[in-house]
Amino acid sequence: MPLGTLDRTPPPFFRQGPSALTMLSLCAALALFLMVADTRFRLTQPLRAVIATVLHPVERTLLVPVATLQEAGRYAGGLARAVDAADEARRQLARQAETSQRLDALAVENARLRALLELRPALSVRSLAAQVLYDAPDPYSRKVIIDRGATQGVRLAAPVINEAGVLGQVTRVYPLASEVTLLADREAAVPVINTRSLVRSAAFGGPDGLELRFTAANADVQPGDLLQTSGLDGVYPPGLPVARVAGVDRRADSAFARIALALVANPDGVRHVLVLEPLAEQLPALPEPAPDDAKPAAKGGARRR
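^ that's the sequence the OP posted. Answer follows.
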């Protein structure tokens, strides 16, 4: 019998096996069973833990190149930023050194001028740190209560400032607290000087805020001018920022201009302040007047002559 006539194909059962639809149904049923079993009985949780433990060193090993590249990028960026910051710091140090040299020269020149004019040196103002406790209960005033009083050395009429400028002054002193009247209060007043034109005036509180009163309509005052304490009242040390000119209304029917001011130090939300010693307590005492009986005696002696 020729070999080509032999049937080499296996029987149908061994050749085909289960049909594709049967395999799909079995796999779907097995997947559904595993999902339900894992959800209810967590059967695959130990298997997951074992696989994760075995694959953890492999994951760490594969992440080493990625972490190395990221660290190299961060190092390069940080090095560039550090170099830029160092350059900027050197420039700032150079500017500060120049400013410091100028200030030293100005201080020496100021000392020489004061010695030449026989002026007293600038007074060193003593200060006391305090914290604002709460606003005063009077709703028609702008006052706050601080946690320093007579026991800590607070004096009546002591100026109160913060890092921006003048806030007000102490108007009542208690043993362990003090009441501070803010500049925005209608009863507040402070003598000021315009740093640009050197014009002196007085700033008063009012319902619309701080304003300059009794200033001539033709006075050299412009919006944006900075006003500082003049020190003429013997309370506020000179040179403390008070306010900036917000608007100037030169009315033709009045000899005085209406000048609105914007406070430099915002009193709303302030927590920490400095209480200064009143300037009058650091000034020298006034000379006592000559007694009245010395004048008639001098006149009588002249008559006897």
